[in-house]
Amino acid sequence: MVAPNREQLHALPDEDSSKRRQILAGARKVFMDLGFDGASMGEIARAAGVSKGTLYVYFADKSALFEAILEEEALQHGQVVFNFDPARDAETTLREFALAYNRLLCRPGGGSAIRTVMAIAERMPDVGRRYYFCVLDKTISRLSEYLKAHVAPGDLAIDDCDLAASQFMELCKASLFLPFVFQAAPPPSEQRMMEVIDSATRMFLAAYRAK
Fold it and tell me: What predicted TM-score, i.e. pTM, was given to this entire model?
């Protein structure tokens, strides 16, 4: 796999940055419509409204293009503010985190990157690993650190905070994310998200609140 030249990508002037965004938007549409294997540089150039020559100025191949899309996905996840201030009570923090997390996962168009990653991860495991560690594992680690801060004073009784963080993240998206990502249902409503989050928070605290 050919990796994008990161120094060049981050040093582009405004006009080139705009062109790069235009190309990525076209590539995202082609990957979503045709999948990674079905996409071609010609199709991507047409969708982006640029020539193939211009496309190759920015990206060496479709693998580099897809990695750039995953980088943007990681940046979007990183820009979402989760308030993990240890001074905040666990119930409020978990509810607010779960709502922000579900909004991020189930936003319109938000499932296209993960669908494509899932489709190619077996054949291109490095892509799957990078997506997991750059996007998903970071959120687990941040929640885990918050939980540890509440284990120390005795608010929560948790032996494995990494496991507990993963459990809560699965609980709070139960019945929401999988139907959405597999296009079996539209993005869930705020009301439905809150119903699931309320149930998930009660279950989590029933198991882990200090007795």
Answer: 0.76
